[in-house]
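Marked as duplicate of an earlier ticket. Keeping the data here for the record.
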Amino acid sequence: MLEKYFKLKENKTTARTEILAGITTFMTMAYILAVNPSILGETGMDKGALFTATVISSAIATLVMALWAKLPFALAPGMGLNAFFAFTVVLGMGHSWQFALTAVFLEGLVFIALTAFNIREMIVNAIPHNLKHAISVGIGVFIAFIGLKNAGVVVSDQATFVKLGAVTDLATNAGPMIALVSLLLTGVLLAMRVKGSLLIGILFATVLAIPFGITHIPESFELTPPSISPIFMKFEWNQIFTIDMVIVLFTFLFVDMFDTVGTLIGVSSKANMLDKNGNVPRVKQALFADAIGTTFGAMLGTSTVTTYVESAAGVAEGGRTGLTSLTTALLFVVALFLSPIFLMIPAAATAPALVLVGAMMMSPILKISFDDFTESIPVFLTIVMMPFTFSIADGIMFGMISYVVLKLFSGKAKELTPVMYVLALLFILKFFV
């Protein structure tokens, strides 16, 4: 049945490979189950209810991706978007968390409409081939940076912005060294072509971190998920026509749109899943998964749900079909009842997987032509601006604007389509909003 539904042989994969890939994807993104309630909890929302909302919304969206789009991508409330929700809209602008949830709900409805009328699909297909490959490379650098940052291998610095962390300070923080040791071990396993290398590395680092107090063994296991009632369907309709709502809604739309587009294109490019025209297969269904997830997520009480870049970890393990994401979705359901087990995995354990997946995602750079400056400069900006701005969307923005401007003023305007002009204009306007 699995073979017939997901066409495993046609996609040159097996059920074992797909399941292992789904487990790996889940392990690399399980941190969201702890981080999302922590961030949104700053607004006064109930953290227990937020945990339940995070799990259910992730499972629903990932199931849609698995069973309808049949692609190996997982979804969950997005990092960055949850920070905008909490620290900008609520704590910064002074709105209630109910106001922010209303904006997320409206965003989901708008995305469903845009996807139904093929507008989002048109945007995905309008991105030039070289930029699509650059997005994959940029995401690779970006997630490697996230992994190093989460493990404390690189830290912030006032003078130089970032610097090497205290990697040899085992007495007070062994996390960076554990991450580096696991990184090397996992690298050796990958070089030896051991199946499940990334997952083995995560489990090894989790166990290694126990004596240092980084992996916290729960004293008791509560199998009953927290009630969702404190945040369920808590909308605030009396301000939906205000200027603030328009600004907040546009920001959610913009960031989620291009984070999702970037992830779909980048991971598909790495996995050689793009079709002969350079387009993501069944992209419309994939975009519906994100839109449906966001809408239901808002109803449940969490911030925008988006396609996770950590899906690249599962793809790196060989995941090619919806069976990978189905496995991840089922693990989210399990996590609802076994949260202490999954939440004990520290950032130091998942960081090496992100770094190595980042390295794997560099390979599409071989498909990029650097002889034409109207191609190579936008490619370069796309790649470097993702980690430098800590945003996939901003990387795409710089790449597309520079692509259109360079083509337009170097006598190559015929290579541009009307959609590219519209996107570049919208990106430029974003600078002033």
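See parent ticket for discussion. Residues 243-270 form the longest helix (28 residues).
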